[in-house]
Amino acid sequence: MVMICALCAWGGIYPFGPESFLTEDLKYQYIDFFTWYRKVLTGEANIFYSFAQGLGSNTWGLYSYYLASPFNLIILLFDEDSLTLAIFIIVALKLASMNVTATWFLKRRFGLTDTWSIILALCYTWSTWSVTNLRNPLWLDALIILPLAAWACWRLIRRGSFIPLAVLIAIDVICCWYMAYITLVFLCLFVLFELAVYLFDGNEVDRRWVLGRAWRFTGAVFLGLGLAAWTFVPTILAMLGGTGSKGISPFVTYPTSLIRGFLPCAWNLNRVPQFYTSIIPLALALAALGSRRIPRKTRALLFCFAGLLAAASVFGHLEFIWCGMRVPNGFYSRTAFLLGFLEIWAAGLYLSRRTSPDPRAQSGAHYEPTRRRHAAKRRLSQPWIHLAIGALALVDLTLNAHACMKQLYVGYPQDAHEAYIAESSEQITRLKEIDPSPFWRLDKTYNRMGAAFNEGISLGFCQLSTYSSANSPHAVALLNSVGYSSEGEFSSVYAAPNLFMDSILGVRYASTWGTPAGYVPMDVEPSQNGATFSRNPYALSFGLPSAASAGELAAPLAGGNPFERMNDLARRLTGEDVQLFTELEANVNRSDSDHLAWEVSVPAGAIGYAYVLKGPDAGSYQPVQLTIDQQVIAQEGWRFGNNVRELNAPVENESSIHRVAIDPAEGAEGVPAGTDCIFYALDMDVFDTLVTALRGTQFEPSSFEDGWVAGTYRTDQPATLLLSMPYDRGWTIVIDGQPTELLPALDEGMSAIQVDEGEHRIEMSYRSPGLTVGCTISALSLFALIACAMRSISAKRS
Predict the structure, then answer these.
(1) Separation CA 155–CA 216 (nearest Å)
(2) Which portions of the chain are predicted below pLDDT 50?
(3) Residue whose C-alpha is closest to residue 296's, from 438, 201, 399, 365
């Protein structure tokens, strides 16, 4: 804890300097999620569901992935304005806990002295992996648990006790199921490794003994999962439906980067694996590989095990397996901490064999310590050696940590963060005063910094943008298919207003530069960046009647581009062949690998839109520069910016001509092959007629809260209501006191309910699926754990 304070003071990092402690995903995601979680803990938000992200999402996955650590309860001691300080304290406490558990493990497993245990534990705690993942505090709990779980595996081999391992696996899954998966895969290998070390030390066992240990380990795994089922089962059901990133690269690093991973101060963001723990455990681990005091088979196995763990940061298919059968999106070398732990283990083994009796003596064989062994023990126990090595470790770890932190904590002052949050809070408060109605959505075409697209969940408003590993994948797919962001991505970003879809989805307010086409300006204080607020007079409510049958409505939107899909949606709503969008002819001014240009004429009474089509081989990180009438959009056609872009605002009474160009993005050699641009016009007369018809028969809830929607709906004929929320089996729908089935719509990106003629009271409530089943499994597992513990105690007494 002293070290993190010293490093932040040296680097000018909050709370000891101006640079925010919120870096990368801490500022993009976690700070918003922590703010929401504090509202959950104080009873202001629903832990099961939130409408704030995308079109709505089961938030149990959000909680169990990002927020389930018991350390996070500390945020209750802080107000919302001080959550950055709370996160800093949480991270500091986790580092301290890592140091404690690693020290305890080294003493128990290898019988090392206090000094050597603390030195090696400090190297484990302040490894390059730990330093570079302070930005992912949810992952740090696994490093606290790993030494304890490794000790439990060793204890299981020696004594047959499986209860500690089961409890630790349960805690790991509860704290963060993702890192628990990585840890559990490692433990399955590690327990075999410890078993082999036990046998190579000369211990003789029979097949029955080995099978018994295998059975106990398997039982510990299933018992641990059972104890955590109360959260794990709802999490599994909440996360179903996502596809993850596609395409597994054969190699994810280069040989030079791999070598640099073992060197101090050599880490490079997203390029170099974080293998480095310190020169001391590295030297001791290498000495262990060459030590004759360690059996040759043990050394060979140690080398192979280390090679396998290193390979997970080199070969894409191994990385895919280790990371939960998904290609990780960002944060390269997520498993490097395992190799670091094995390095610490090897260092501990070497020291124990240098200073302790030979394992043959412990197993009962005749053995006499040599003078050299006594001399080695005396040398390694000298206070001056401890002092010198401890000082070397502190200097080494501090310099390495500072070199890493200089790459991460730059360009985001804490004052700027706090100023933005204060300004946004005031704006949301003002909008809620202007419009107290239960349901409306708001979105912005800007954010705090970079990929911070989760503002709604922290400030308490509904937005379309969402950037999380725990959102609704079907809702994201729907939003992106109609032009809100790149298709195939796990996030969706409101980078530009889209009048038709904004209206259908209830986006009543937008904040951007200028007034979007079809919107009207508002008297709300502009942002410091010059963005103003506008109101969408066409915005509809939560439920819209559809002329399509439930079966027709369930199918994905048809069409090869966002405009055709929006036309298909209009046809399903009206039952008529509505041509909201018509394709515009564009004159090509120039077309080559360095520059594409068009001249487009938009007819009177219409809004023209452009949409960049990416080439078949263009990836998510190959943007282009799009220019519309000299307005430059620097990054278009990439993961957070592949949007329907308007050509004209306001709507003109006569035709207008617009010039559009695509150029290489900054730093790119050319425009990706196959890049093109399509142009469509929204007929405002047709659009106005459609909105007017839908508004007369829409469902306007009188109560709209996270996990609860209620209101009265009247219809003159049986209707299928299209609800702007993703389909989720956790919803219970009651109409006039009678349960009603929730139906999937638009490939589960939205939902539907069927309502008979007349006036009806509709009530909707949500509970995360699997919670009851998970709690039942956990209760049974707890009973089994208690029974096993009592049996073990009884056996010891007898």
Answers:
(1) 12
(2) 359-369
(3) 201
